[in-house]
Amino acid sequence: MAVAKNRQNKRSNALVITEALLVSYIGYITSFILVQLGLITEPNVENLTINIFLITLAVLLCSLSVGLYEAKLRETFRGIIRRIFVSLGLSYFIVEILTGTVFSSLDMHSYFLPTAISLNIIALVFFRYFTNRLGLLGLGRVRLVVLGAGERASIIEKRMRRDVDRLGFELLGFVPVPGDNREDGIKNEKIIHVKVDDSLRNFLVENDIEEIVIACDQRRGTLPIEILFDCRLRGIEVTDLLDFMERETGQIAVNLMYPSWVIYSNGFHSQNYLRDALDYTVNSILALFVLFFTWPFMLITALLIYLDDGRRTKTSVFYKQERVGHNGKLFKIIKFRSMRPDAEKDGAKWASKNDSRVTRIGNFIRKYRIDELPQLINVFKGEMSFIGPRPERPEFVEQLVKEVPYYNQRHNVKPGLAGWAQLNYPYGASVEDSMEKLKFDLYYVKHQSLLLDILILIRTVEVVLFGKGR
């Protein structure tokens, strides 16, 4: 364990030194830019050096106070961003107070501090993203073992086969536990043949294990409670398989969920009361903003649909369809018509890839999501949000509720024009696909926040610009 502790200290020290250099450099760049723009005069070198040192020291201390240098920080990237904002906000007020009282002789220009703090927020967010994502400085990579080698544990083997799926951790192997369904369990991963007794404790210590993932098929009478208790006291993280998959994949393994996990886990309700209170206002402003830029494309699209087959068939360029919304309430969704007028003459059908019912214009507007633009009307009416699970048809919901566990929980939030599931699983045309998309929808329901909404909006722009829509 001493080796593991030493390695953790080296990670933290490397991070502190690197971020200190980054913050100092950003301070210098800030001064250079402001001078070049003529906003401030060339500062005294000695004063500038002390100012940069003061900002750097404040940022490091505040980052330390909010846990950003904690060696075993288990936080989502959104959580890290929140901590960076808090840290830099505190730093701003501390430096502002100090330079206005104790160090008033430093003559820090009023433009310098807010600009330096703003640029540092951007720089630190990008820096943390790449260090965590790529495992730089030894950050984000945790040495772990999985307790269990049966059917439940096999989801890691199935869902996280690629190296890119394991950037955040180093998996040493799977420890079989009595009661595991080995027939449907781990096939190609390393099996650690160690008894679930003191031998397991010794193995964990000797290999500097930092996290244990509990993934055994049967827990009652099989979990080594005393060993796990001892591990927690030693600082080793003990994580449930569901929490591990949620953290590493951005989805919730619906087929492995059990009621007690839902009851005791965090999330599944919005904790941002300001966001809830301003929900309709923010969505309406966004809708107006999008409408301002897209109305010419909407007008051209309507004209093309009319000329393509609307004039001949006397069918509207718009398509209205009943969907299931917030808390199961039905509403009429509005889209540009992308299918033939007789597309559902034989009843409701799942849309499919290369669907023969789609018109020539329909293929194009679906690819670039132009067919979704009339749903801005649904946003103005308060029936939809910009971000949320895509609303499904009541005929399909009735079927999916029976076949897919926890499907109804996706209706706990308003449906949206864009969603987490659409970014991560872009096509769904069957019950099986709906199960996969539900894993991402429930992740959104559990973690809904303004920051996640912004992330989805940014990534949706990429989908539209590069034609990655269906």
Key features?
disordered N terminus; flat; Rossmann fold; two-stranded antiparallel ribbon; 3 domains; 17 helices; 4-stranded parallel beta sheet; alpha/beta; 470 residues
Quick summary of this structure?
This protein is an alpha/beta fold and 470 residues long. Helix content is 52%, strand content 9%. It has 3 domains: 2-138, no CATH class; 142-249, Rossmann fold, CATH 3.40.50; 274-343 and 350-465, no CATH class.
Q: Could you explain how this protein is built, in words?
A:
With about 475 residues, the protein is α/β, with parallel strands linked by helices. The chain has 3 domains: about 1-140, no CATH class; about 140-250, Rossmann fold; about 275-345 and about 350-465, no CATH class. It is about 50% helix and about 10% strand. It has 17 helices and 8 strands. The strands form 3 sheets. Strands 2-1-3-4 form a 4-stranded parallel sheet. A two-stranded antiparallel ribbon has the order 5-6. A two-stranded parallel ribbon has the order 7-8. α11 packs antiparallel against α12 (about 360-365). The longest helix is centred in the N-terminal third of the chain and has 35 residues, at about 1-35. The chain is flat, with a radius of gyration of 27 Å. The relative contact order is 0.07. The model is unreliable at about 1-5 (pLDDT under 50).
